Amino acid sequence: MTIVIRILQPDQLHVLDCVAPDVFDYQLNREWSAAFLADPRHHLAVACDGQRVVGMASAVTYFHPDKPIQLWINEVGVSSSYQRQGIGRRLLQTLFALGQELGCQEAWVGTELENQPARRLYQSVAGKAEDFVMYSFHLAEEKSGDF
User: Fold this and answer.
1) Which of 20, 32, 48, 65 gives the lowest tally of CB atoms within 10 Å of its CB?
2) pTM of this prediction?
């Protein structure tokens, strides 16, 4: 098995036509995928076994008025039959290298406390765990009053 890792470019949307089960959380939407790839601040690293995408890691580069550019790793997914083979680590390392090329000073990712596979992955690439509390705001739901 030869797994090739690459960052998808806007003209490579067709690569997402053949994705193994459980790489992404939901079925891909072609319009959203095209918009993601077209945005120069959005990045999608994929792991391919031949023509089939068996893993992915997505990231966003972003700026703040008071901080240097950062790389936020949004998600890492590897098909269950390909897990524990170093693919997630390679995907992250590819995104880290891209972040360095783009001038990012830091990369970060969050995960749930109970997500032990993700925590092992992030520790394997020298990630340092920090105390973190995340709040979600469901903006698409109808609400009365304040958010």
Assistant:
1) 65
2) 0.84
